[in-house]
């Protein structure tokens, strides 16, 4: 749902397993299981231990020391120097005299283990922290990943991935009147970890970040419902298919959310496809995924639909502002095109709602999902960083400049393949220049210098009328 967030994090790495010694080495193996966690493990990351210097040294076994001070009896057969073949002992082995391999109270396992935290405990804490009333998925489901969108990290000074977002197919199996039925839904799957090793007392603090996506979803819906506008919530917020808690695996649970996926993709995907030559009838298919449309011959772009989508984005921001909703990480990739000129927000991580009559301004902390590339200056300043409704205008300008970069490249490539110069004609250049001017006005340093949503909508409508006259 960053997530600050850092992309392209390394996959979650498992802690190296303790090695065992062949033969009569069971005391050493038992001691290694109680050693302190090594650097890079999830437990070490949460406890702030980034070095393995304090870890207990791995005990060694000296077979010659084992019989060093033991006087053999005359009837004792000669002991072979070769290590004994491992087998089930029939007699009690001799007590080793080396104190380094003798387990003691100081090397005993910690009192808090992963078994103290169950899935039911995590589910109860998630409901308490987020306020979600929807129960976890109870039917048999299988998720088939198709494409990893992004992998983010928010754990300071570690390489542990804090969340991952993947497109895929969710298969739901149910039995109705004795008949097995399988339903397949295209979804976006987001997973966020909950570490069970510190114990149940640490889960509420972890959920301040790990559960913020579900909490933002509940918060946004509550803002609409409190004003009697549930229909607007269904239009502007993407439907949550379900959520679940999976695990534990290596002492880590995962909060999993499934959001319905629109076939036209994100707002960024759709605008880029339209610049490549897609139109109302040529949408995404199985061979041409959203955002990966092939370059079509010619230089025509569906400018009318592009402007209508941007106007729909402004209308969405106006609706959110009217309901006091502030989004700290508002980006084109966090909006799905559900139908022609219709947008619905996803990734509700960090959503906040201002009370009626209060200023919509919220502080930015280390838990606030902010992408530095798109963040407004007031979100990154050293003194009292905050997110306001005016920050949404800056986000819009940054996203528009980012999309224009890809549009210019695609239109230039199409023009060259068609034997034309530039971006495919004076009309395309006029439209691109108009969008660039709007974007530059949005990214003004001071919030007071940025245009209002109404002024931006009027500018886009003028460009839209110009584009419609060329159809």
UniProtKB/TrEMBL annotation:
Coiled coil: none annotated. Transmembrane segments: none annotated. It comes from the Eukaryota. InterPro entries: Kinase-like_dom_sf. Residues 1-113 are annotated as: Disordered. Residues 1-11 have a biased composition (Basic and acidic residues). Residues 39-53, 88-113 have a biased composition (Low complexity). Residues 54-78 have a biased composition (Polar residues). This is Protein kinase domain-containing protein. It comes from Edaphochlamys debaryana. The lineage of its organism: Eukaryota, Viridiplantae, Chlorophyta, core chlorophytes, Chlorophyceae.
